[in-house]
Automatic annotation (TrEMBL):
Organism: Pelobium manganitolerans
GO biological process: tRNA threonylcarbamoyladenosine modification
SUPFAM superfamilies for the chain: Actin-like ATPase domain
GO molecular function, one term: iron ion binding
Cell compartments where the protein resides: Cytoplasm
Catalysis: reaction(s): L-threonylcarbamoyladenylate + adenosine(37) in tRNA = N(6)-L-threonylcarbamoyladenosine(37) in tRNA + AMP + H(+)
Record-given protein name: tRNA N6-adenosine threonylcarbamoyltransferase
Higher taxonomy: Bacteria, Pseudomonadati, Bacteroidota, Sphingobacteriia, Sphingobacteriales
Binding site for Fe cation: H109, H113, D301
Segment forming the signal sequence: none
Family, per entry: Belongs to the KAE1 / TsaD family.
Cofactor(s) demanded: Fe(2+)
Residue intervals passing through the bilayer: none
A UniProt-annotated Pfam family: TsaD
Length: 332
């Protein structure tokens, strides 16, 4: 089967082609306009999606060396995400399905982040745990089957990606700050500054206290020394990053013990973080885990994960009707 995947939930316009479960093209058009505003501006995002979607699909079809008549189904992100952005991908997918007389497949973006683990070998075996950490979500998911997933822990306030991006903003780094915090952290001392770990008994997370602690810490230090940030950027980033990672991994460890699971994975944009990747590999040694980490290009938003999710739905004959509407919030 040949599946075309479309992703447009936030600020990446992406198109991918999956042939018999193998990804043969994954085109991602990033939007740079949002850097000017320090965050994604929804109205601008949907307009740029409209400009980028047709070229992205053309390019994906070219790279895959197929003709559009060979496509058996079109899979698209139905949600969660920005409604205006989702509408562009949804409308394109519906029109493409109608024009080519092929089935339409709706995909949940958060499930797709997890199903990115099925793009390449080695693949985890069911049931496994996935720590999904992205710009809008932080979840521990018990994955029982491709589309049978249970959220066993999640953030009560900010997402992990937001914690990275807001930290970067407080430190005066441009948006999106996560990758820049990662870069500075590589050069710094993670034990130099101590930031608080929230005390939450269950498998849920909280990051808003950390954000406030960083805000006051920076305010007080800069009042003493106006050059404090420039002089200590690497150590601050390393210290904050190590705290975010310990918050995430302590809960993941707890979940793995609670559910007696050894196949453990990470997914979503923050799983691109080098510190998190190193730390989970280290924890795998002490906990006896098999750890699964997606390739960088499949961590942040991409249509390959939508196409692979679409492929597994295609095998089940799980299709959507032309009346399907995007959902800003969408449960599993
Ligand atoms: P969601 O998937 O929850 O709808 P999203 O699609 O916007 O949100 P992703 O594209 O999956 O999120 O991830 C983007 C987030 O990942 C941003 O917050 C970004 O800062 C963060 N991120 C990307 N690379 C890194 C990195 N190396 N270190 C830390 N954070 C990173
Ligand atoms: Mg993005
Ligand atoms: Fe995402």
């Amino acid at each position: 089967s040949v599946i075309l995947g479309i992703e447009s939930s936030c600020d990446e316009t992406s198109a991918s082609v999956c042939i018999d479960g193998k990804i043969v093209a994954n085109i991602i058009a990033n939007q740079t306009i949002h850097e000017l505003y320090g965050g994604v501006v929804p109205e601008l995002a949907s307009r740029v999606h409209q400009q980028n979607i047709v070229p992205a699909v053309h390019q994906a079809i070219n790279v895959a060396k197929i003709h559009k008549k060979q496509i058996d189904a079109v899979a698209f992100t139905r949600g969660p995400g920005l409604l205006g952005s989702l509408l562009v991908g949804t409308c394109f997918a519906k029109a493409f399905a109608l024009a080519n007389n092929i089935p339409l497949i709706e995909v949940n973006h958060m499930q797709a982040h997890i199903l990115a683990h099925f793009i390449e070998d080695p693949k985890p075996t069911f049931p496994f745990l996935c720590l999904t950490v992205s710009g809008g979500h932080t979840q521990i998911v018990l994955v029982k089957d491709y589309f049978d997933m249970e959220i066993v822990g999640e953030t009560l306030d900010d997402a992990a990606g937001e914690a990275f991006d807001k930290t970067a903003k407080i430190l005066g780094l441009p948006y999106p700050g996560g990758p820049l915090v990662d870069k500075h952290a590589k050069l710094g001392d993670p034990n130099r500054f101590k930031f608080p770990e929230p005390q939450i008994a269950d498998l849920n997370f909280s990051f808003s206290g950390l954000k406030t602690a960083i805000l006051y810490f920076v305010r007080d230090k800069v009042a003493e020394n106006p050059n404090f940030l420039e002089q200590n950027m690497d150590d601050i980033c390393a210290s904050v990053q190590s705290r975010i990672i310990s918050i995430l991994l302590n809960k993941l460890k707890k979940a793995a013990l609670q559910y007696g699971i050894k196949d453990v994975s990470i997914a979503g944009g923050v799983s691109a973080n080098s510190g998190l990747r190193n730390s989970i590999n280290a924890m795998a040694q002490t906990e006896g885990w098999n750890v699964f980490i997606p390739k960088f290009e499949y961590c942040t938003d991409n249509a390959a994960m939508i196409a692979i999710a679409g492929y597994y739905k295609f095998l089940k004959g799980d299709f959507a009707g032309q009346d399907v509407a995007p959902m800003a919030r969408m449960p599993f």
